[in-house]
Amino acid sequence: MPLLFSPISLREITLRNRVVISPMCQYSARDGMPDDWHFAHLAKFAMGGAGLVFTEASAVVPEGRITHGDTGIWSGEQAEGWARIVRFLHAEGAKAGIQIAHAGRKAAMQRPWHGNGPPDETDSARGERPWRIVSASPEPVTEGWLMPDALEAGEIADITRAFADAAARADAAGFDVVEIHGAHGYLLHQFLSPLSNHRTDEYGGSFDNRVRFALDTARAVRAVWPAHKPLFFRTSSVDGFEGGWDMSDTVELATCLKAEGVDVIDCSSGGHSPKGATNANVARGLGFQVAFAEQVKREANMLTQAVGLILDGPQAEEVLQSGSADLIAIAREALQNPFWALHARQAMGVDENYADWPVQYQWWLQRRAHSLKKLGL
Ligand SMILES: Cc1cc2nc3c(=O)[nH]c(=O)nc-3n(C[C@H](O)[C@H](O)[C@H](O)COP(=O)(O)O)c2cc1C
């Protein structure tokens, strides 16, 4: 059995395989509520054989949404909305993860299909007005973007509590895994990176000060998140800019997070770019972030998740076999092929005749395969 399809236990949660569906914002919620779109979007990945399916970044407070369309987990009603989805993921054999997040100075921006920039009059015309945004320092994403207020110490503590409250709601909703979003230029990353944190109090300056908010948040979440369930943390392993956050910072942060009870570092990168919200300065080849997962695993002695341009089963298997990571996260490939894991099983000879497919599809696909074979196709 390839490692990719071998079960893995994280604390007391056992994933049926190592295929993880990476968090993917859909920007399609109203008032943070997951709805039928989110159900259909996530349900396919569980039907498609993934071991762990992550929700998109879900805001811990309304002001922490990236766009008006982001989902949230700041209310019990939202948790109930998620619970319906979690029940279906479980029924299909997958475990369910939720990424909890605060966008900081990237909050209140436009959806990708509305421009992916700062809010303008076209958004207001749709009734989507910006709100007060916050960050480590009063510095916008880049010129022309909303100016954030620097958070006061008391407000930082409130957000830490909001992360913990969100994790408690996620537990009540039945989620198996929580991931704290510490990457992509959002709030926690804004505190971590010297590019966006110019504070002079106990949350800025030295490495220890810049990681304080992230560590406090991990500690607060771990305190309410059940001991038998794993906790993930997504990092932007490198900023990719001179003077920015780099791999030695990530390894040191991972070591500190491990001491707080974080189990897996999900190794992404980028998010701070003067060119806009989603630009990164890290060259993108196949598996371009695998080396980050490998270094964290080796130097911080932690479980890691590799992500980024991992396209097929054999490539994923090589990452696992080389000992670079323990889990493989798939995002865009899963958008174009939600049955990615089942197709990889077939391509790698694990499933020969649709035997692993949902029973509702199996018989029909087997008969079709038989017909195609007779036609020599
Ligand atoms: C539609 C879409 C939405 C995304 N939303 C999130 C998100 O909510 N949180 C996050 O950490 N990353 C998000 N990402 C990044 C992915 O999780 C992933 O790291 C990235 O797409 C690279 O993996 P890939 O090459 O397999 O697509 C998103 C990516 C896509 C394509």
List its traits.
globular, 8-stranded parallel beta barrel, 13 helices, alpha/beta, binds flavin mononucleotide, 377 residues, TIM Barrel, two-stranded antiparallel sheet, 37% helix, 12 strands
Global structural class:
alpha/beta
Q: At the first level of CATH, what is the class?
A: Alpha Beta
Radius of gyration: 20 Å
Q: What compounds sit in this structure?
A: flavin mononucleotide
What global shape is seen?
A: globular
Mean of pLDDT: 97
- Give me the side-by-side strand order of the main sheet: 3-4-5-8-9-10-11-12
| Low-confidence runs of at least 5 consecutive residues | none
Count of DSSP-assigned helices: 13
CATH topology: TIM Barrel
Largest sheet data: 8 strands, parallel, barrel
Number of domains: 1
> Tally of extended strands?
12
- CATH architecture label: Alpha-Beta Barrel
Please characterize this protein's 3D structure:
The protein is of the alpha/beta class and 377 residues long. The chain has a single domain, classed as Aldolase class I (TIM Barrel). The protein has helices at residues 36-47, 76-91, 121-125, 153-172, 187-192, 207-210, 212-224, 247-259, 290-300, 313-321, 332-336, 340-347, 359-374; strands at residues 8-10, 13-15, 19-21, 52-59, 95-101, 134-135, 149-150, 177-182, 231-236, 264-268, 303-307, 327-330. The strands form three sheets. The protein has an eight-stranded parallel β-barrel with strand order 3-4-5-8-9-10-11-12, surrounded by seven helices. α1 (36-47) runs parallel beside α2 (76-91) and α4 packs parallel to α7. The longest helix has 20 residues, at 153-172. The chain is globular, with a radius of gyration of 20 Å. Flavin mononucleotide binds at residues 22-25, 56-57, 99, 181, 183-184, 234, 268, 307-310, 330-333.
